[in-house]
Amino acid sequence: MVTGASTGIGRHLAEGLAARGMAVAGLARGEERLRTAMDEVAAATGGRTLAVAADVTDRASVEEAVGVVRAELGPIALLVNNAGLIDEFEVPVWEADPDQWWDVVSSHVRGALLTVRTVVPWMVLRNSGRIVNIASGMSTRANPDYSAYSVAKTGLMRLTESLATALEGSDVRAFDVAPGVVDTPMTRSMHMWEGFTDWTPPERVVELIAAIAAGELDQWSGRFIRAGKDDLDVLCTLAPDDADRQLRLHTYGGDDPLG
User: Fold this and answer.
1) What pTM value is reported for the model?
2) 26: β partners
3) Which of 3, 47, 88, 250 is 20 to 30 A away from residue 185, measured at CA?
């Protein structure tokens, strides 16, 4: 199940996963565009797809959508939380519209929370499942012009680690996957990427998430990996130590009382 599947990275993921033989349920708010996208994916891949219109920030909508997915396609083995908004204007936080700012945060954090609380209990019962939260470079460092997006993506990383910690001992795992800078309508709308050409191929995002779904990167549960920079073969052979690829406070030296 991929949220935000009608366009951008979500659309690439739906097609890439379907091409690998997965039955893919796509969620998005715009029903017509979503159905068109899922029909196109099915036609291009020969895979089975399902379009379910839903607002991931609405609890009843998410619960109804997950019920439809489970009824039509069976148990959800992979959840990809991709849906989310971006700051409407590139301005410092005190100039941002507070309602739009909060909508951005809610779309990522509340959206992921609601899908997790609806999908993960079934994964726990089956003792099988993988959750991927789509992270960002802004998860790990602030951007003054995209404060809401930065806050949202950082919160999503902490949610992933909390989830992974709570799932320890089970065969249900949670991951942060940063897609890099994929050429999508959203990135094209951001002034910071004007003139940018070194796009991350969406296939690199798909291959990481497909590997997660196959259980090849389980040792990275609760941690951050980045498409287009991380090499899949290397990740498969590495076992991270301590807080590698997790959000932590850097101390100021040996005398720091928080050290």
Assistant:
1) 0.95
2) 2, 51
3) 47
3-state secondary structure of 180: coil
Nearest to 77 by CA among 128, 13, 27: 128
**Is there a contact between 88 and 108 (Cβ–Cβ < 8 Å)?**
no
Distance CA 66, CA 54 (A): 9
Burial class (CB in 10 A: 0-12, 13-18, 19+), 148: buried
Q: What is the CA radius of gyration of the chain?
A: 18
The domain segmentation of the chain, as residue ranges, is: 2-237
Task: With a cut of 90, say whether residue 186 has pLDDT above it.
Answer: no
Token digits of residue 40: 């196109």
Nearest Cα to 153, choosing from 179, 141, 135? 135
Angle at which helix 31-45 crosses helix 8-19, to 10 degrees, equals: 30
With the CA atoms of 159, 160, 163 and 169 taken in that order, what torsion angle do they form, in degrees rounded to the nearest 10?
A: -160
Q: What is the DSSP string of 92-128?
A: -GGGS-HHHHHHHHHHHHHHHHHHHHHHHHHHHHHT-
Superfamily for the 2-237 domain: NAD(P)-binding Rossmann-like Domain (3.40.50.720)
- Per-residue pLDDT, 189: 85
CB 122 within 8 A of CB 165: no
> How many angstroms separate the CA atoms of 179 and 202, rounded?
8
pLDDT for the residue 195? 86
Q: Find out whether 130 and 79 touch, Cβ atoms under 8 Å.
A: yes
Q: Is the pLDDT of residue 152 over 90?
A: yes
Q: Residue 255 corresponds to which tokens in the numbers above?
A: 């005398």
